[in-house]
Specification:
By secondary structure, this protein is mainly beta. The protein has 10 helices and 36 strands. Among the domains are: about 270 residues, no CATH class; about 130 residues, Beta Barrel (Porin), CATH 2.40.160.40.
């Protein structure tokens, strides 16, 4: 569309303007106003927020933020809050001593009433009393049933206990039906064989933590990150500083393929691949080991902090991400069949008997990842600091008999050990906050390799306006799987924070105390080859009065802003829809718990296929009506105009609309329902997904210690693709049950 030199000049102009202009804070795509985790899930499946936003907010909601102990960065991570809001909360807390009643923040003019109401579900109320109690915590049980699934239903149990004021213990376990058993190398086949899947209980998370304002230690499952997330981070926080506990799990509303076997050495496949069953509960692999930190070491002027962390964790890996170095001299040579992914076969009692071959499966405990690192920082005040972070990691393959390694497109570097070291700094005064980080990665790809990366962010708040401007440069050889900085959604060799240079601007404002505006502009290109890309949006929501809230959103994405001589196509991994109708979504690794390419290393929307160069324009209209103080209605419709090679000279029309009602007839009873229509191609019923999805959700708070919930989902696919016509069951019926007790 534009000459690359003109694009680069425009980007530099934006960056230079931004450095001199006021700038802003975190953006979660929309103004977050939810009552519980399920409403967050609805925002995600209706594509109002991205997956990384959903995962981050779920984590914040489950963990809770204590206003009496939260740091500036903890408060900044909460939705709808700015740095200015965080500073006012901290100033009020310092003056008052405690924040026992969050409503006092409104009375004191610290927060707007609407903003406080929106973060209420994310903060802990009455935390002082809970800390004084001998024991507090919660236990939560969930299970899901779908029609035609004859196996024991998937289920999950989560528990967390707080005691001795500073100690927290937690665990999460699941009943897993789809994970393969032990895997080993078969020298006769030159491939991996694995025991078939069966129902198995599995402890997925467990930890014990002791955390005070001065120091903390955690053993078990945890996440940790620092600075601008460029050197090391897997927390999901926008500005992490230290470790956080991890006991999170997630559910899916996508049926899983029951048969994941092809014929292999048999005459035909041993099962029917058109049958779908209930998916197992999912989780993100984090770190497993020990982390400790001294948070506040007085040094005269300011203070120091020092963290160290260690992890040794067996990990699963998707079967297409492993190759045999014994048959491959150059893993980058795609023409060499010896460099293809190793086969994965079903283990038989007779090792010489013909057997089937697995597809779309994950190899259990394929390797263990050893990780060790540290951070040391000096703080002049809570807004200004300098720090150094470094880590090293080494994979150890647990399947003997072959020299296995990661394929080049996997997020983990092949060749052995890897790591990174970096320095970060921040400075804040009045309305401005400036942050930067520089990092150098190291790996053994083609000898001692690695590359450089840098990021600069500028934030400020004035009056009712906020802006954030950032510039980033990630060398094409910067191979750091634990880097989660600001980056576009496309990948380079499995990594997002690699082979990219760009400028991002975000703006939001509360105008006339009624209009919430969010605007976004991101322009970037590959470092290795000029290919300018663009993503921008403007979202406006108007609080017209106490009962009416209309909104209008415009989104534009262009995968290559240069002119093209032929038809172009816009595509990303999300084109099949969030109900899992397309084979690409169902058969590829789950974006939530994929052990190598999941969002524990990623940030933002679905990954874009690198061959896509087209455009997509989206127009969304929505309205929320508070019909009664106990009844809320929401209506939303989005229309996409998408470039597609099937429509040369025109565009593909996509539609996504839903209607939702939420009501509380009496205080302890909540009823929610939604109807959604989704169509990825209005002009053609044979190409992509077309579906209707309805649910009803009922919960009743018997007491604090007993809250049962039940939800029924109905999903009907309306398109006429061969995969849809042969799919079983159709329609889908889901029943989800939860029982929660807090004490």
């Amino acid at each position: 569309m534009t000459d690359p030199r003109r694009w680069l000049a425009a980007a530099l102009t934006v960056l230079l303007w931004s450095i001199a202009a006021p700038a802003w804070a975190i953006d979660y795509e929309v103004f977050i106003d939810v009552d519980d985790e399920d409403e967050l899930f609805d925002l995600y499946v209706s594509e109002q927020i991205t997956e990384s936003t959903y995962l981050t907010l779920v984590d914040l909601l489950r963990r809770g933020t204590d206003l009496d102990e939260a740091t500036r960065e903890d408060l900044y991570a909460l939705p709808n809050l700015t740095y200015a809001d965080a500073d006012r909360i901290l100033a009020y807390r310092e003056e008052a001593g405690h924040i026992n009643d969050p409503a006092a923040l409104v009375a004191a003019g610290v927060l707007d009433e609407r903003v406080l109401a929106s973060i209420a579900v994310f903060i802990t109320v009455g935390a002082e009393e809970l800390r004084k109690a001998p024991v507090s915590g919660f236990v939560q049980y969930q299970t899901i049933w779908t029609v035609n699934d004859q196996r024991a239903p998937p289920m999950v149990l989560q528990a967390r206990i707080n005691t001795l004021r500073h100690m927290t213990l937690g665990m999460a376990g699941r009943l897993n039906r789809s994970r393969l058993g032990p895997a080993s190398w078969d020298p006769n086949r030159g491939a991996i064989v694995a025991v078939p899947e069966r129902v198995r209980p599995e402890l997925i998370k467990a930890f014990i933590q002791w955390d005070t304002k001065k120091w903390g230690v955690i053993a078990g499952s945890y996440r940790i990150g620092f600075g601008q997330r460029l050197t090391f981070d897997n927390t999901g926080r926008y500005t992490p500083n230290g470790f956080v506990l991890d006991d999170a799990y997630y559910r899916r509303v996508q049926l899983s393929r029951l048969c994941r076997e092809s014929a292999g050495e048999l005459a035909e496949a041993p099962c029917d691949d058109t049958e779908y069953v209930t998916p197992d509960y999912r989780y993100r692999q984090s770190l497993l080991g020990v982390a400790a930190g001294a948070k506040h070491i007085d040094v005269g002027r300011g203070w120091m902090q020092a963290y160290g962390f260690f992890s040794y964790q067996p990990r699963d890996i998707y079967q297409n991400y492993v190759y045999d170095r014994g048959t491959c001299d150059d893993p980058e040579n795609r023409e060499d069949e010896g460099c293809s992914a190793v086969g994965l076969y079903k283990r038989q009692d007779d090792p010489l008997a013909p057997t089937s071959k697995y597809k779309y499966q994950t190899i259990p405990n394929a390797f263990a990842l050893l990780v060790g690192g540290a951070n040391v920082s000096w703080f002049d005040d809570r807004r200004s600091h300098v720090g150094v972070t470094g880590y090293g990691a080494a994979p150890r393959w647990m399947i003997g008999g072959a020299d296995l390694d990661f394929v080049p497109s996997t997020i983990l570097p092949y060749g052995g050990a890897f790591g990174a070291v970096g320095a970060d700094a921040s400075w804040g005064h009045r309305w401005a906050d400036v942050s930067a980080e520089f990092s150098r990665s190291f790996d053994n790809q083609n000898g001692l390799g690695g590359g450089y990366a840098a990021i600069l962010r500028h934030n400020a708040t004035w009056d009712v306006h906020e802006i954030e401007v950032s510039g980033r440069f990630y060398d094409e050889n910067y191979n750091n799987p634990f880097a989660r900085p600001i980056a576009a959604a496309d990948q380079s060799a499995g990594l997002r924070a690699s082979d990219e240079a760009g400028v991002r601007v975000r703006y939001n404002a509360l105008l006339a105390k009624q209009v919430i505006m969010r605007a976004f502009l991101d322009v970037w290109t590959n470092v290795s080859a000029a290919r300018p890309k663009l993503k921008t949006y403007a979202h406006v929501d108007w609080y017209a009065n106490k009962w009416l809230r209309p909104g209008l959103w415009v989104d534009i994405q262009d995968r290559d802003t240069r002119d093209s001589d032929g038809p172009e196509a816009y595509c990303d991994a999300g084109d099949q829809g969030r109900t899992g109708g397309g084979e690409a979504v169902d058969d590829s690794p789950d974006p939530i718990d994929d052990p190598v390419t999941g969002p524990e290393f990623e940030d933002d929307e679905p990954i874009t296929a690198v061959t896509c160069t087209g455009e997509r324009y989206s127009l969304t209209g929505r309205v929320r009506v508070q019909a009664h103080r106990r009844v809320a209605l929401t209506l939303q419709y989005r229309h996409d105009f998408t470039e597609d090679t099937d429509y040369p000279g025109s565009v593909r029309h996509d539609a996504n609309g839903y209607f939702m009602i939420s009501t509380r007839p009496i205080d302890p009873l909540r009823i929610r329902g939604r109807v959604r229509f989704y169509d990825d191609d209005l002009q053609n019923n044979l190409n992509l997904e077309r579906s209707v999805w309805m649910f009803v959700d009922v919960s009743y708070k018997v007491a604090r210690w007993l809250v049962p919930r039940v939800r029924y989902d109905f999903i009907q696919r309306l398109d006429e693709r061969p995969s849809t016509l042969t799919r079983d069951p159709s329609p889908e019926h889901w029943v989800w049950f939860e029982l929660e007790s807090r004490f």
